[in-house]
Amino acid sequence: MMLDDDRSPGRGATVEAELKGLVRGRVHASGDDGYEQARTVWNGSVDHHPAAVVHCADAEDVRAALATARRCGVPVSVRGGGCDWAGRAIREGGVVLDLSAMRGVRIDPGTSVAEIDGGVLAGELLDAAAAHGLATAAGAVRSVGMTGMALAGGYGGLIGRFGLTLDNLLSADLVLADGSRVVAGPDDETDLWWALRGGGGNFGVVTSARFRLHPLGLVIGGIVMYPAEQAPQVLRGYQEIIAAAPDELTVMAGFLTGPGGLPIVFVAPTWSGDLDTGQVAVDPLTKLGTPVMSALQPMPYPELLHMFDAGSAPGNGNALNTRWLPALTEDAITALTEAALTRTSPRSLLMVHHFHGAATRVSSDATAFAVRRPHLLTEIIAVWAPGEEADQHRSWIADVSASLAPGALPGGYPNILDPANIERTRLGFGGNLERLLAVKRRYDPDHVFSAVAALH
Q1: Which has fewest Cβ within 10 Å: 403, 416, 432, 447?
Q2: With a threshold of 0.85, does the pTM exceed it?
Q3: Pairing of strands 349-355, 205-212
């Protein structure tokens, strides 16, 4: 089914009026009750004013709204979980295809497959899978859109055992820029299938997707906090542990605000294997220094993802940057420690994600996501109170990123890079860039979808 739509009420109407008479889902335009909430995303510093927000009820609403926007010459964007910090999901003056009402989750325990609609959050999928003793690789928080995360990569506590989130994506249903509906998978639209896994939301709107599930009981997880002055010895010990970690042990580290408002360095393991073996494996993480708090215990995997709920709460101002580090060298440890001590807001934090195990045993050209060597994804996250001036916090991010640059791998993770940083984004795709650009030209030659500007 292509873009011409016999349900159109006429080309003379505004795009908002056309949409309101066309789709099953609700449409919010400027001045409507609910418009302000509809245009709000997780990052409180994003203040974009779209022409209309279409709360799509199903794939046909997506197709019809897309057709109308294109016919009216209005740009489009796609909102899944609404956690895109850069605000790309809410296009200024555009039509937002909001998938937040498309939240169905269907678990087939016999085949260990989950089918989800395009607006499902990670926590919703994990809760449904856990009811059957199953799980899939997800990120570090529950509130992120599962599909958007999978299209970019998806670092999390199960990465060592089950790979990136995108490594567990089995197939996806899409509405393309020309209005056609396709299924991309290992046997269908194979170039598109390759590009989706790491190329981001640049080729169409994913209205549903299927994920591989894995048997998983309790995991051992939690957090151990140390005073910031112990950071060098803690991070040295952390590097030694992760360098020899089995697939079942993935450990996040970083800096946040601890008891008393002081910066602390933390380690946060996820052990996904035998619990007795796991207790022995995580114990050294409690002895890297003198902890101010240690809370590691068996728990359901979905519960573990509540750990950073407070830090991911919506409404604050946020800005992010990232560096891929091959390891925590002495220079990197010094840079991160200095960054923690000079942060411009007690809400700001640094996160170090551990990439190893199963995720590294995928060829760099098997998916668009190219960086398959062991490494550490470092997130530099500035968080400030609503209404507070942002310049000093953005400067802090730039300084930290620059201090880590000399020892970093080329490029960066597109979900965390500034969309304007085209050069680093392109470098992140490595040898996959030319193929990715060719797929973009084939499926979206008019650049209707622009989640990653580097692919234009």
Answers
A1: 447
A2: yes
A3: unpaired
